[in-house]
From TrEMBL, chain A:
Keywords: Cell membrane, Membrane, Transmembrane, Transmembrane helix, Transport
Domain of life: Bacteria
Major location category of this protein: membrane
Regions that span the bilayer: 27-52, 103-123, 135-153, 218-239, 259-282
Subcellular location field: Cell membrane
Family the entry assigns: Belongs to the binding-protein-dependent transport system permease family.
Protein name (Swiss-Prot/TrEMBL): ABC-type dipeptide/oligopeptide/nickel transport system permease subunit
Domain ABC transmembrane type-1: 93-282
GO process terms (BP): transmembrane transport
One of the record's GO cellular component terms: plasma membrane
Amino acid sequence: MAALDIPDAVQVARIKRQARSNWMRIFYSRTALIGLFLVTFWVAAALLAPVLPLPSPTDSDVMAMGNPYPSAAHWLGTDILGRDILARLIFGARTVLSVAPLSVAVAMIVGITMGMLAGYYGGWIDTVISRFSDIILAFPVLVIYVILIANIGPSVTNIVIATTIASAPGIGRITRGLVLGLKEQEYIAAARLRAENTLYIMLVELLPNCRSMLIVDACLRIGYTIITIGILGFLGLGLPPPNPDWGGMVKESVTVLNVWPLMSLIPSAALVSLVLGFNLLADGMREAWKP
Amino acid sequence: MNLIVSNPKGAAMSGSSQSDTVLDVNDLRIEFHGKSETVVAVPTLSFSVKAGESYGLVGESGCGKSTTAMAIMGYLGNTGVIAGGSIRFEGKELVGASARELRAIRGRQIAMVYQDPMSALNPVKTIGSQLAEVPLLHLGVSRTEAMEMAAAMLADVRLPDASDMLKRYPHQLSGGQQQRVVIAMALLARPSLLLLDEPTTGLDVTVEAAVIDLIGELRSRYSTSLLFISHNLGLIAETCDRVGIMYSGEMVEEGPTGDLFRKPRHPYTQGLIDCIPDITHDKRSRSLAAIPGHIPLPQERPVGCFFAPRCTGFTAGLCDRPDLELEDIGGDHVVRCIRWRDMKRSQPAQLAQIGKAQVQTEAVAVSDLTKLYKLGGDRTLKANESVSFNAAKAEIVALVGESGCGKSTLARIVTGLDRATSGEIRIAGENVAEIQAKDRPRHLLQSIQMIFQNPDSTLNPSHSAAFSIRRSIKKFGIRKGKAAIEERVRELLEMVRLSPTIANRKPNQLSGGQKQRIAIARAFAADPALIVADEPVSALDVSVQAAIVTLLLDIQRERQSTMLFISHDLALVRHVADKVVVMYLGKVMEQGTVEEVFGGGTHPYTEALISAIRSPNPDEKRRVRVHLTGDTPSPINVPAGCRFATRCHRKVGAACDSVPPPLRKMSDTHEIACHIDAAELRTTPSPFGASAQGCA
């Protein structure tokens, strides 16, 4: 029996094509590329903020207060206190781009754990976790945030805690659904037959196969969290001043909206571009990783 | 007794005399335009179906046979394009025809029966309304007339109680009944051409036999031409007048059924015939010849003969010429092989000396094993009931039966993936029936390993091919140290005849056969005493199947491991097993050595199973076909007496329905659970006549 496989050009071509990694495939999706560009733009701006030739985001330029329109000194104009809007935007990006991913990361850890336990064990563990999630998911998300932040006060930690409570059940649900399907696969049975323990099966056999769906979901959630942080800022529940905060910037200028609409529109546009970036990136990845 | 010798070819003999062509496919080229690349699924294909003829299109998966059918129906989707050639139906050109013209032909004059009946039927509409749609739309009759026609057609496809059936929804029917409904729907418009795309692939063998007989019968009544697409040579040989063998989008050989199967000229056709196990031979009389390699992807086709890389007779300068044509070799037989004159019918491969398992030390003993699933309320599903059998060391015991017979549940209990409700499984003196895998001591887990059915789910897509093999060696401490483990992985890959370079590939870079080889290597990595193989080859193409089975037999013999081989394929079981256990609805109907079970004097159910097997050998004596009525009852609501009583063709009386059958001892090793007494059972003729006995 000569069933050794023919290692010819045919095989090599096949391997090359399939070996194109998941991450590389993103670059073949236009949607993902646009999203990636928007996100990278803001990330780069945030990282480079201290070295960019920007005016201070907290100092008032008294001269500009009477004429807050864009000028050579202030490219995007100034706010009602005469602070440079561009500088505040870019420094604000630092806040939003550190708090949002951090919150989502914590929420993912909690959510994946919940979903993994519920999906793998089933039974009463599943019932308890799923019903608990249902209760939280039934609350309007914003109400949860407002109640929590209003009670425990605005700070980075508290925003992370609030995001985790609001998002973990959703992440858990996705993970549970994936695990329910995956645990019936024959490779899981094979792992059980070679005496692997449950933790190993969860982390090494199951989790890697949830990867692509969870990364897409995380990307979307970062976008949503950025909106939420914006809303909290607008409601005055964001990070305490004088930290630049996009939602806060809109709130401060909303009183002069009729006279100087740019002061509110510019931070809103920044928020939209960043959230759109994350959403497009998520859509692109979903498309590129479609099985 | 409802025994009939069926002859589905009957219609063709009269029909083919008026040799006008119904379907004429000429130089057809089908391409799929993807985002970045164009895939040529079918480079050039020509064939024709004459009026009243049944034409069989055969090939393995990926050869373009279904694509061709879809092109004829005009269902290629958004990306599929007919890039050249013509499809003429009764003289009318279908390629480039307007949507309106096509609508008038499709469904009305050409109808199609798909592989999966459940997806061909609309789950939210009743059978009646779906069937009535056809005459309403195509024949312009009134609703009441349409319903009457639907009822009449249901009776024609042998569905009982047609008027009641019309009111039911698809999910209330069994798979076999659904497929009958789909066939009824296809025939309602009285089409002149019926396309059947693997119409019985998802069905159990006894149901398949009935559906095939039905198709033959209906064909003679409605004088419809058939285009029968299948990978099953036996089915094609029995139902078709002409056969075309497709390989990688091309016709490689075409001819009248008898001539083609008697004298196959193309090496691929020969390979296909040689690699399927047939019911008259076992592993001691014939070994399966596998075709090496795999079918090329459309982008990877070689110049010249597409089969060249897998062909043993490849001759450089001859087979790689780009202008190979189908050559007429006389007798309406064409072949695309430049060396067909030199092609000898290959001799059966050299047989390895396979002695019977000599030392009869008992390795596994299953006794009175019962598995019940509580379904809530007072309903229980009886997956296994009082199953008893045993296996000696180095013996292969086959568990055979149709879906729902409990064979896979039994496998799961033996391996510890599930737990028995009661009963014993003794392995090396220990009773493991009620210990699940997580509670089993390591040496017990190590001694029982499993080979799974589905190559796509047997390996973790996130890890490399060798990952689980390596893990298994480490976990069971077969080898210590990184270098020693790697060395062992290499040995195991060699054992399953894979090159070591495959070790680091991800499963999505491997073919189905390669994945299954890895799975075999993984099972043997633990050095088990018992291997449970649950349908290890049923998801593979026939040519790959043969290679995997041969490999499995080689390794098993070398390692002297005991094996439980679970399968629904009797021809394969005949080839593989030493001992056979036939199960039906959770109970053992018959058990004995392979010679006893296949040698006549068997349980009526075994008789039906064996008679349902079709062989492509045209010279084989036409077997007496047992026709079973109805479908397997639900395992939730099993018959009180003999489980098989509701479908049995040899019922002896009321006792069958009310009293569980006694166990008839036919010999030391042969047991049959039946009300018919032993002496009468013994008179059941062997299904293959005397010749089979000689071989075994």
